[in-house]
Amino acid sequence: MKTEKSAKLYIRLLGYLRPYSLVFSISIFGMILAAATEVALPVVIKPFLDGTFINKDPSLMTWAPIALILIFLVRGVGGFIAQYASAWVGNKMVMDLREEMFEKILVLPLKYFHEHSSGSQLSKFTFDVSLVQYAATQVITVFVKDTLTVVGLLAYLIYLDWQLTLISLIMLPPIALVVRYFNGRLRWASRETQDSVGAVTEVVQETIDCNKVVKIFSGQAAARERFFEVSNKLRRLLMKQTMAVAANVPIVQFIAAIATAIVIYHVMGQVRADQTTVGGFVSYLAALLMLTSPIKRLTGIMEHLQRGLAACESVFGLIDEKQEDDAGTRELKNVRGELIFDNVSFKYPDSAEYALEGIDLTIKPGESVAIVGSSGSGKTTLANMLPRFFAPSKGKVIIDGQEISGIKLKSLRANIALVSQEVSLFNDSVMANVIYGSGGVVDLEQVNAASDAAFASEFIQKLPDGYESLVGEKGMKLSGGQRQRLAIARALYKDAPIVIMDEATSALDANSERLVKEAFEKLRQGRTTIIIAHRFSTIEKADRIVVMDNGRIAEVGTHDELMKRKGRYEKLYAVYASE
After folding, report:
1. What is the pLDDT of residues 362-411, one digit of tens each?
2. In which region does residue 268 sit, left (phi positive, over 0), alpha (psi from -120 to 50) or beta (all else)?
3. Closest Cα partner for 171 from 266, 244, 250, 260?
4. Which H or E run includes 554?
5. Residues 56, 57, 63, 67: what is their CA dihedral angle, to the nearest 10 degrees?
6. What is the SS3 assignment for 524?
7. Higher-pLDDT residue of 344, 510
């Protein structure tokens, strides 16, 4: 069963070489040239030695050095063609695999990223795919060239002395057993190694991302210990691979040496009985010894093949992941912004309890609705229903009379702008971040208007290169408030009819928050706006306020109405209003 699975994996991998079959054929041609010259060397030794040292043929004395130069010239050209063409195909294949993996990353559901660390995913793009490349191209290169060499040398040996050659083949069965045993060890160790590389990447990435926390909480010792554990595990696994590889080759060579010794002993008897010439003996011995290197490489490629197959499981595992459900067939046009949550309930896959239960809420076109509640009450989960980051376990979400499950994802999300608590900026220019997702089309007037409305123009103009200034990784060259305002400018530039603000003012100082509040007073005119916040000063002027409690709607009303009821909202206001 494992052999069948490995064969299917490898056949699937070789399918990625099909678009480049012409170049790969050129590589095969180069391998054939190189293999032919390998066989030619022992073949020319016999007539060269016998014709020069024994028969003293003047023509052979003249042409033998020239023939030797030509053989090595052809060998060098063939080897270059094979290596270059194979590397070209391999790099193209790796690029195709990376693009396919990246395409899948773009359409995976949100829960996938909750369940898989970013470190393990980065490892697939860097470490795993490089092993796949070697398995797909270099393994074939070595296999074709060295198989042809072995077949050619064996044919020549049989031609010289078939009985002696059959005796020398006694080394093949024990070599096969040795190779089969170590292949299993390598496959297991390679699979574990790939997981460990992902763990090392994850620890390093988390330490870099959380460097402030590490420093302020004196977590260097804990971080150091954690890194040592994953790093040492990777070292141990690499040593297990090394042990398998290191033991494999010398055992194979030792078996081959025994066979060679038997042959030499037998040939020495022929020499004593004048049954062979010096040229015949040297030629046979050279051909036999030349078998050792290609056989060694052929057994060695199993190391890379097993590593590559283990990497294939990882790479194809990502490629085969189920993408977001996008069964919608309708386009969302001329959006008014009416939103209806019809008896919506939601439960996370690994949870026994509902995060949302029985949500009934209607939001009118152009209405500004604030959703408040204590941490874990379901505010963000409810907002995530709208762009279909999560699908309801029960009930329906409706936009302008259309259930969103029947709308194409691209069309649905094209009408929604999001500014979240965790600001996501790209390591690019300010301009690129503002117009992100617009296909590179720049409307400078709209850019300036969006920046002005988000009160970002002031700090953008003070940057060294203005809109062309780089913001750094995750916007680290900007302050927290500046990053948040830039994200708001991006949402404004999109000019979507529906806007979701998820704790969007949490990183702003009092002055910036006041400016953004004024901007949103203008922004919400003609747009349906959902504001999720725990700062009550941000949402007091909302048309309505929805109070969430344990995944349910506890209260709905304006700020004044809810304060008069002296219910859940008033208690939350007393706690958070002073923040």
Report:
1. 999 989 899 988 888 888 889 889 999 888 999 999 999 999 999 998 89
2. alpha
3. 260
4. strand 552-557
5. -70
6. coil
7. 344
Name the helix (H) or strand (E) containing 339: strand 339-346
What do you get for the CA distance between the two ends of the chain, in Å? 63
| DSSP reduced 3-state for 553 | strand
Cα 186 from Cα 172, distance rounded (Å): 21
Amino acid making up residue 29: F
Question: For residue 201, what are its two tokens?
Answer: 């990447």
Cβ neighbours of residue 527 closer than 8 Å, sequence gap 6 or more: 337, 366, 496, 497, 498, 499
Determine the Cα angle at 396 with ends 390 and 400, to 5°: 105
CB 118 within 8 A of CB 202: yes
Instruction: Identify whether the C-beta of residue 396 lies closer than 8 Å to the C-beta of residue 385.
Output: no
Residue 377, helix vs strand vs coil: coil
569 exposed, middle or buried (CB, 10 Å; 0-12, 13-18, 19+)?
buried
Give the pair of three-digit tokens for residue 288.
Answer: 């036999």
Q: State the DSSP code for 137.
A: I
Helix (H, G, I), strand (E, B) or coil at 225: helix
pLDDT at 275: 63
Nearest Cα to Cα of residue 104 among 428, 323, 314, 422? 323
Distance, CA of 312 to CA of 302 (rounded, Å) = 15
316: closest CA among 3, 2, 6?
Answer: 6
List residues bridging with 373 in a β-sheet. 548
Which H or E element spans position 417?
strand 416-419
Q: The sheet that has 356-363: what strands, in order across it?
A: 356-363, 339-346, 394-399, 402-403
Question: Residue 388 phi/psi, 5° resolution?
Answer: 60, 35
3-class SS at 565? helix
pLDDT tens, 65-81? 787 788 888 888 988 99
Show the tokens assigned to 285.
């011995």
The span from the CA of 367 to the CA of 340, in Å, is: 12
Residue linked to tokens 């028969």: 55
Indicate the residue type of 10.
Y
> Which residue, chain included where needed, has tokens 């294949």?
93
Give how far the C-alpha of residue 531 lies from the chain's centroid of Cα atoms, to the nearest Å: 35
H helices of 389-534, where? 409-413, 430-434, 444-453, 457-462, 480-494, 510-523
Tokens of 411: 């069309």
Q: What does the pLDDT read at residue 1?
A: 44
- For residue 446, give both structure tokens: 């709209």
Distance CA 60, CA 68 (A): 12
CA–CA separation, 417 and 342 (whole Å): 22
Would you say the C-alpha torsion 519, 446, 487, 543 has a positive or negative sign?
Answer: positive
Helix, strand, coil % over all residues of the chain, rounded to 5? 70, 10, 20
Secondary structure of 246-297 in HEC code, one letter for each residue: HHHHHHHHHHHHHHHHHHHHHHHHHHHCCCCCHHHHHHHHHHHHHHHHHHHH
What residue spans of 369-479 are helical by DSSP H?
379-385, 409-413, 430-434, 444-453, 457-462
Q: Collapse the DSSP code of 344 into the 3-class scheme (helix H, G, I; strand E, B; otherwise coil) and give the result.
A: strand
pLDDT at 26: 92
Cα–Cα distance measured from residue 123 to residue 144, given in angstroms and rounded to the nearest whole number:
30
* Burial annotation 277-286 (CB, 10 A radius, 16+ → b, else e): bebbbbbbbb
